[in-house]
Predict the structure.
Amino acid sequence: MHQLTPLSIAAADDPSAHGGSGPPPPVETAGARKPGLPRGAIGWAPFRRAAPARSPAVSPPHTAPLPTSRRPLNLPPAHTALICVALPGFVISTEQGQLTGRGLEGFYRAGRRVLSRCQVRVAGHEPLAVQARMTGADRARFVGTLRTSTCVGPDPDVIVERTRDADGTERITLHSAALRPLRLPVEVALGTDLADLGAIANGSAGHELPASVHDSGLRWSCATGKSSVTADPPPHDALASAGLLRWELELPPGGSTTVELRVRPDGAGPVRAVGRAATSPLAHARVVGDSPGAQALLRTSIEDLQSLLLRDPAHPVDMHLAVGVPWRCGLAPAEALAAARMTLPLGTRLTAGTLRTLARTQLGGPGAQSGMIPGPRRDAGMHLPPACTGTEATLAFPALLAEARRWGLSEHETRELLPAAERCLTWLRTTVGDGTYLRDPYPGGPVRCETQAYAHRAALLGADLLDAYDRPGGAGLRQWAQALRTAFRADFWVDDLGGGRPATARTPDGRLVPHLGAAAVHLLDTGLLGEGRQAPGLLDKVQTEQLARLLGGPAMDSGWGLRGLGAKEPGYNSFGHRTGAVRVQETAVAVAGLTAAGYEKEAGALLRGVLAAAETFGHRLPEMYAGEQRTDGGAPLPHPAACRPAATAAAAGVLLLTALAGIRPDAPAGTVTLRPMGSAPLGEVVLTGLRVADAPFSVRVSRLGLAMVEEAADHLQLAG
């Protein structure tokens, strides 16, 4: 797999958890990395207590944590940066346009900074920055101006335009507005430290390396790598000691001239980004209608998803999503599965590639861990110990396969992946044993409400899948799911004067953890069975109604989306990545779940809040932002440790907008059911270019909340 995150501290499936008096210690790991499982995370262990020892099955890949004393209190700021991504390459810039080598600035390839400094001077002066903007997921444009004339007046006579691309290309174009020919000396100062991203984040990148003149540019090398910059046209002079390339450029009146720089790891060709290939697994869907923000959000979300695609080098047909840039440029199993699921309306190819990739990491052999998909631990906030994302991924695998089959995954691919799904379900039944609940896979772990939701959905959808292929075990899974529903409704409900709430968890001694948080949204995410039927949930009707009321209340709904922890709960922190910040994925799951359960008022409010937040972020949603209450004329506060772009946030944009139409396909049965949001919170919406049953699918939702299929596969019938 692409090894894009050179620092991969074992604990963190989350980017980081800042707070407290200093950086928390790394989680101890046990066991070696299973061959084929890519590194998935970069950062610091995001919890403040010592973690229990981890068994090999739930360990992330082998890592070598840096000494705690060398870790800075904060990550370098990235929340205001312009980040162009076409993995395995990306470039991070500030709004000034110049790459100064400070912080995270620079061109990166496979997690290593191949150029950290690129400063342009024209006629001895730096251009005055007047605009910086993203023109796509992989490209940014910077415009600066200069006055080169001695004439009195404020007007610039030279415009400097820089186009910076994630593939390692920068074009510097000078436009003359002068009335006479100009002869301008142009200097580009270059430098790099060839540091990996982990060292940069850790504050230990080191000094710039000495350059040497090479071909039509400069080259740098050290024990860990080499890089070079070539220029077209070649420079008139190259000064290695200062890292300078120089030109004398002539511009006629009103004329333009361009210098192109190409940054490469030495000996490497251009970045071949998966998302730019003609065989991209994601459909180029569009939305038109009354909401311009919806159009921009879907377009940007798909572009970001394309930019985060990676291939398995040993199996190049299989693609999956990296978690996000800049902090987590590798594969994290639970998040890759969650993102693939939310993109099912764009086709099943990404899901198939993700499932095949993770099936190759599945643990085999005898023992209780057989059938697990390994994954790192994830911080769960101050009220609970870290959770095992391996458990989440193992439960998501069969559920996603079952749903992908409904969306149109081929019989051949489904049968190919079915044995891995069966092993996941066998692990579930073996781990639960004669008990009712699925506990954390380490001694003394709690019983989490979201884990029971994952397990319940896996059991019901997995049983549906097993029955479809005449495989044994479906009846036992349904029987256990029924027992879990009965017990959960009694054991996990906290009665109070406000009508009660679902508990976040139960401790080993039976005490309830009563805090209301976004983990409860997974209780509404039940999944789809055949014929467009919604699977039953763990809550009864009265409890579901109460949960919907709580999620739509001011304690949870910030006006920009759903808080990770209720504002009135102990330990609430609007920037806490599990204790108050808005996580876009959880908000999208809440919108879809509330809509399916019939609570459109609450769903619509959350949807409109995220769309308003997306507009302030240029429609490139970060994975999270602060949960401060929305005010008139305000804007959500960015989280300094958030990835942007992020796979789950981009995929959430797809889920949020397709939830408006309530598409429930059953490709094996040749039917599709529509359950649109009758309240039409965004007015008229037309979704085109989706994929159902491996064919284009388009649907219109009117301002009255009525849905109509406008394009579909010939054999697909609209069910009631």
Summary: Residues 1-69 have pLDDT under 50 and may be disordered. The longest helix spans residues 411-432. The CA atoms of residues 70 and 204 lie 8 Å apart. The radius of gyration is 26 Å.
